[in-house]
Write a structure and sequence with these properties.
By secondary structure, the chain is mainly alpha-helical. Helix content is 59%, strand content 4%. It contains 23 helices and six strands. It has helices at 12-19, 32-35, 60-83, 96-105, 107-123, 127-155, 164-170, 175-185, 189-200, 205-218, 222-252, 256-274, 276-284, 293-313, 324-330, 334-344, 358-367, 372-388, 437-445, 447-450, 456-461, 470-477, 491-501, and strands at residues 352-353, 412-413, 416-420, 423-427, 430-434, 485-486. Helix 5 runs parallel beside helix 8, helix 9 (189-200) crosses helix 11 and helix 9 (189-200) packs across helix 12. The longest helix is centred in the middle third of the chain and has 31 residues, at 222-252. The relative contact order is 0.10.
């Protein structure tokens, strides 16, 4: 009987190389240009794909084992929260309006990111970026699933959590995040990496996940906090991928520098404009606010990115984004201007809004000492007077939308908070309107792309949204009675009071 020697256990580094990079091969019956047809037309030159370091540094079996452990902990939290009627421990039912905006606006983006990173996992030429894109694709799918499973616990008790996928494709304020991802996914593979992996995930993702998930914890929403922090460890790897992508491309060829600078200028402003919805959510939708938009912007962007990252990128010839000073100039007013439009048009939204009470206005005045009492408190006090007389102000009519970011024209000039910021450009004999210098620059850089934008207001006027009346449009949106409008007196508000007084049975 012949005995075979036991197999040698490979060192981790060698095992990783065999199971990832060494799975690559040279094509024999097609050319590399035929196999990877999308990596040449953007003008980016790559001389050595082996120079790309995979930031995940995991084999597939280790990756799934690691993610499975995180899922076990998350679903234990979800079970405990559901069995103990944890939703009654929230700070207030109005907090869930922020979660409705999250699942309608952010969760579909996770799925879109899953799809496009899977595409990159096929079409990038190097084995390391292909494997990194594959892992991020699986990450994004897991984020989408855990967010749906977590937030669906609230669908049993509260309105506005149904039909979120349908709403993402149709409702006016959700065209803001959807149009950004549609723009990125119709770009080339390298521009997508700079747009999503670097400009969104590296520069701005902390503004979404860290303060918002801390806010969830502060308002008693442990499941949302758990899926947020479960995703945050993945986001750290995604940020590393974004940084690795930009440094790799910059080091490959000096000719890549102006192309990438142009993409940073565009995508910083696009991602920043989309984060305006997050600003309004942070400052106005959390009953117990934990951090203002201004404070988060200064900490996570001005200090960490402008003060830490961009000085390092100067070595490669990269400067801060073109319109970054405009973003800094807006930090004292961005959230107030965005939430005002959500408040005025919440009759056509799948969440409810309310004017901030005196305690909330005091907090806003402390966070924004140079602007709130002077410009925004008088507006909210007027709303309180109208409501004291039995009214509720909703804006009658449809707003004009920016041709690029698709946010209504609510922003003001950076040096005059009383004057609406309004820009106009001509293309092929037609006038197109944008909300800022940043959006105007983006439009005039690629007018052929942005004249095709699916603008919700234009679609209503053209008769493509169910009909000409508000009830017909709301039905086409998928919004049901009670989902929208004023929070005080809404079904969610009445149920909340009834459950805590003990005179309404849950689930009825």
């Amino acid at each position: 009987m012949t005995q075979t020697a036991p197999r040698r256990k490979l060192p981790l580094k060698e095992r990783y190389a065999l199971l990832t990079r060494d799975l690559d091969w040279d094509p024999s019956y097609v050319t590399k240009e035929q196999l990877f047809p999308y990596t040449n037309y953007e003008g980016i030159k790559v001389h050595d794909w082996d120079g790309w370091e995979d930031p995940f540094r995991l084999t597939v079996d280790a990756y799934y084992k690691y993610q499975a452990e995180k899922d076990k902990r998350l679903y234990a939290v979800l079970d405990g929260f559901a069995q103990s009627q944890g939703h009654l421990g929230l700070a207030d039912a109005s907090y869930l309006n922020a979660i409705k905006l999250f699942i309608q606006g952010v969760t579909p983006l996770e799925y879109a990111a899953h799809r496009h990173f899977a595409y990159l996992g096929r079409y990038l030429e190097g084995p390391a970026p292909r494997f990194a894109a594959l892992c991020q694709s699986v990450d994004e799918l897991r984020h989408c699933q855990t967010q749906i499973h977590t937030i669906s616990n609230y669908n049993k008790y509260y309105g506005g959590f149904h039909s979120w996928s349908k709403m993402h494709d149709r409702v006016w304020y959700l065209s803001v995040p959807k149009s950004l991802f549609d723009d990125a996914m119709t770009a080339g593979p390298f521009e997508f990496l700079i747009s999503i992996s670097f400009s969104f995930e590296y520069l701005l993702t902390n503004l979404l996940f860290v303060p918002f998930m801390s806010g969830a914890s502060f308002n008693g929403d442990m499941p949302t906090m758990s899926f947020g922090f479960s995703a945050q460890s993945d986001e750290s790897r995604h940020m590393t991928l974004g940084l690795e992508a930009i440094k790799f491309l910059l080091e490959q060829d000096e000719g890549n520098v102006p192309i990438i600078q142009d993409w940073i200028d565009k995508w910083f402003w696009r991602a920043y404009r989309m984060s305006a919805l997050v600003a309004g959510m942070m400052d106005y939708m959390l009953p117990k606010p934990v951090m203002s938009w201004k404070e988060a912007f200064e900490l996570y962007f001005e200090d960490q990115m402008l003060g830490g990252l961009f000085p390092d990128l100067e070595y490669y010839g990269i400067r801060p984004p073109r319109h970054v000073q405009d973003a800094i100039a807006e930090k004292d007013k961005l959230s107030h201007e965005v939430y005002k439009v959500l408040h005025n048009f919440s009759f056509a939204a799948s969440f409810t809004t309310q004017a901030p009470n005196e305690q909330h206005m005091k907090w806003l005045a402390e966070q924004y000492p140079e602007t709130f009492d002077q410009h925004y408190r008088p507006v909210w006090e007027k709303h309180h007077r109208i409501e004291a007389e039995g009214g509720r102000m909703f804006f009658q009519g449809l707003p004009q939308l920016c041709q690029v970011c698709q946010i209504p024209m609510v922003f003001t000039e950076k040096d005059d908070p009383a004057k609406t910021s309004f820009r106009s450009s001509e293309f092929r004999g037609e006038q197109f309107h944008t909300c800022s210098d940043g959006c105007q620059w983006i439009f005039e850089r690629e007018p052929e792309k942005f004249v095709q934008a699916w603008l919700p207001v234009h679609q209503i006027y053209q008769g493509n949204c169910g009909g000409p009346s508000v009830p017909e449009v709301l039905e086409w949106y998928g919004i049901q009675e009670g989902d929208n409008g004023e929070y005080k007196g809404s079904p969610d508000h009445k149920s909340w009071i009834g459950w805590h007084n003990g005179d309404v049975e849950q689930g009825v």
